[in-house]
Each structure stands twice: as structure tokens, then as C-alpha cells.
Design a protein that fits this description.
The protein contains eight helices and seven strands, in the order H-H-H-H-H-H-H-H-E-E-E-E-E-E-E. The protein is of the alpha+beta class.
């Protein structure tokens, strides 16, 4: 116990001495050992790396999990070294609500069928988002966090030790300087008068004491300088390792971009598939709605039909053998319809489209076709012609040209 008290008192004395010396350096009242320019550049580079790594880490966490409460919960689970519970994504929750709504509205109704289709796509989007978050956390967030909690803590610890070694070195330099000044003063004022031999003896004794003090201070300075140089070399090696950290973070950044690219590519493909499914079934849904609501036959045409001049109305007549009928039981047959003399328009295809049956026309992205509308058609569809080929095409896949 006595040893611990003495050590505690000694450490407290060293701490206050260093604090006083540090304050005098800030006020310009004490000399300070300066590090070389290369070492200072390494320190500045390390501080810059630490600051920007923290900002990138925090903002990436916000990107992957916008809910601050969820981020705090994940942080606590991580600190407690416990597995983070699985959390339902927003897309998966939306898919659940759509599926339940379809069950209430009737899965056989047009609205119910569409809700099921969209809900399934939202579920796939949610699963893709979950995989992206998992991949980004492992390949990007974890290396950044390991640097801040591992390598940077080691660098900070060694920098603090170097700072203490520098303060000790400056203190030894100041002690040696004072000892030399006292020795020179003692040697400069001895009294050699024979009438006062006692003063001469005292002066010679003081000079010898200060010489011993100078030797002791020089010995302490050499030891302190050696410790300072050793610690500076250790710290320098750690700071130069920041270059390897940058290389590692660069690789992790590439993996993050690759994960994000795959995620958005999957989302794009899922939405394209959904768009095709909705475009394929939209005619059926509208036909069911018109049959269920007699007033639907008098509803105004949609925007696509309004922008394209329609051919004159063809009256519905009984089917006669050998005479093709354009409208049979309310179902259009594009192959039996001739384009109007005027009112056709050119259109550019935006996406590839696979024909669902013989009444539809398959499309290739960026190709040009001729389109026009027919009376009684679903406003989401047009008649498209490409050479001798003719069929229905969805308006959402086209860019109408003037």
C-alpha cells in the first residue's frame, strides 16, 4: 500500500509538471521540440483520414437505416455483443398489406389481382434491400468501424506516449540549460583573496556541485532523447500504415458500389417485369370493369386516345360468312383492321416487350413503329404496325412523336 501511495504521488507530480510545461509552451514561455515536416504531414493525414472516415461511416449508416431509433438499437446490440434481431423492411411490410387487402377485396377481382402482383414485386424489392444492407454492412461499414475502433485507437495511444516523451525531453533540456547557467555563474564569481579563504572553498565546492548536476542532467537528457526517438519511430511506422488503410478502404468502396449496383439493377428488373405484367393484364381488367359497369361505355377517352386521331366508328353488325368483322362481341381483332387514311403517328419503343398472344405485337427497344387507335379500344393500348406485322402495343412502352 505504501508503494502504491508513493507511485500515485509521483505520477501526480509528473502530470502537473507536464501540464505546467504544456501551458508554458502554449504561452510561448518555454522551448518546444519540433517534429520534422514529414512527420507533421503524416499526423495531418492521419487526422484527416480519421475525421472523414467517421463522417462517411455515420452517413452510410443513415443511408442504410434512416430510422434513428433503429440505429440506436443496433448500436446497443452491437456493444452488448448480441445478435441484432431481424427487422422487416418497408417493402416487405407494404407487400404484406397489399396481400391482405387483396384477400379482403377478392383475389379474383381486377383490383385484387393487381394488388397481388404489385405486392409480390414489393416483397422482392424488400428482400433485395435486405441483402444490400447486409452486404454493405459486412463489406463496407465493418472495415471502417474496425479502423476507428482498432488501428486509430492504437495510433492515438502511441501519439499520447510520444507527446509525453517530448515533454520529458523538453524538461530535461530546460534542466540542463539551467544547470549549465548555474555552473557558469558559480565559476565566474569565486573569491581568490587570501584574506578570505573560506569564500574560495565555498565557491569551489558550489562549482563542483553544479558540475555534477550538469553531468546528471546530460545523462538524463541522453536517456530521454533515446526514448523519444524510439517512440517517434514507432509512431511514424503506425502513421505510414495509413496508406495501407486507404488501399483497404478503396477495395471496400469498390465492393460497396458493386453491391449498390446489383441492388438497383435488381430493382429495375423487378419493376420492368411488373410493368410488363400490368400492361399485359390491363386490357382484361378494363374489359371486366366495362362489363361490370354499363356507364363505362360512355366514359371519356384517355389521354393516349385523345392525342391520336381515331378512325371513324365502325358499327357492330352481325357476322356474315366471308365478311370480316372488326368488332366481334366487343373484342378487337387488330389483324382485320386497316389503318385510317390519316391520323397515324410515329412512335419510338422505350423498352423490349414480349407479345402475350397473337393479337399483340412484340417490340424491341429504340425501334420506330406506326401507331393509331381504334374506337372501343382500351386507352392504355394502341394498334402498332411494323412492316407487314400488326398488333396491339401498350402505350407505356412508347414515346409518341409529333
Amino acid at each position: 500500500m505504501e508503494f502504491n501511495v508513493k507511485k500515485l504521488a509521483s505520477d501526480a507530480g509528473v502530470f502537473f509538471s507536464r501540464a505546467m510545461q504544456f501551458t508554458e509552451e502554449k504561452l510561448g514561455q518555454a522551448e518546444k521540440t519540433e517534429l520534422d515536416a514529414h512527420f507533421e504531414n503524416l499526423l495531418a493525414r492521419a487526422d484527416c483520414t480519421k475525421n472523414w472516415t467517421e463522417k462517411i461511416l455515420r452517413q452510410t449508416e443513415v443511408l442504410l437505416q434512416p430510422n434513428p431509433s433503429a440505429r440506436v438499437e443496433e448500436f446497443l446490440y452491437e456493444k452488448l455483443d448480441r445478435k441484432v434481431p431481424s427487422r422487416v423492411t418497408n417493402g416487405e411490410l407494404l407487400a404484406q398489406y397489399m396481400t391482405e387487402a387483396a384477400s379482403d377485396f377478392g383475389p379474383g377481382t381486377p383490383y385484387g389481382k393487381t394488388l397481388i402482383k404489385v405486392g409480390e414485386t414489393q416483397r422482392r424489392l424488400g428482400a433485395a434491400e435486405r441483402e444490400f444492407i447486409r452486404s454493405a454492412s459486412i463489406n463496407f461499414l465493418t472495415p471502417l468501424r474496425n479502423f476507428l475502433e482498432g488501428d486509430w485507437r492504437t495510433i492515438s495511444k502511441e501519439r499520447r506516449i510520444l507527446q509525453n516523451r517530448r515533454l520529458d525531453l523538453d524538461a530535461c533540456k530546460a534542466r540542463l540549460k539551467k544547470a549549465k547557467a548555474a555552473e557558469a555563474k558559480a565559476a565566474a564569481v569565486p573569491d581568490f583573496q587570501e584574506t578570505r579563504p573560506r569564500n574560495y572553498v565555498l565557491s569551489a565546492s558550489a562549482s563542483a556541485l553544479w558540475s555534477d548536476e550538469v553531468e546528471k542532467a546530460e545523462h538524463e537528457l541522453r536517456l530521454t532523447q533515446t526514448e523519444f526517438d524510439r517512440q517517434a519511430e514507432v509512431t511514424r511506422l503506425l502513421l505510414e500504415g495509413i496508406s495501407s488503410t486507404h488501399v483497404n478502404h478503396l477495395r471496400c468502396l469498390h465492393e460497396f458500389v458493386e453491391s449498390q449496383t446489383n441492388y438497383y439493377a435488381q430493382c429495375y428488373q423487378f419493376m420492368l417485369d411488373l410493368q410488363k405484367q400490368l400492361g399485359r393484364f390491363s386490357g382484361t381488367f378494363v374489359g371486366n370493369a366495362e362489363s361490370a359497369s354499363p356507364a363505362a361505355t360512355t366514359s371519356p377517352p384517355a389521354v393516349a386516345a385523345a392525342t391520336l386521331p381515331a378512325v371513324p366508328t365502325i358499327p357492330v353488325v352481325p357476322t356474315i360468312v366471308g365478311v370480316p368483322n372488326t368488332v366481334a362481341e366487343g373484342v378487337l381483332n387488330p389483324s382485320e383492321v386497316k389503318p385510317p387514311a390519316s391520323g397515324t403517328r410515329r412512335a419510338r419503343v422505350l423498352y423490349d416487350y414480349e407479345a402475350a398472344d397473337s393479337t399483340e405485337l412484340a417490340l424491341l427497344a429504340d425501334e420506330m413503329i406506326t401507331v393509331y387507335s381504334l374506337p372501343g379500344m382500351d386507352p392504355d393500348w394502341l394498334i402498332g404496325e411494323r412492316g407487314n406485322q400488326k398488333g396491339k402495343v401498350p402505350v407505356t412502352y412508347l414515346e409518341l412523336l409529333s
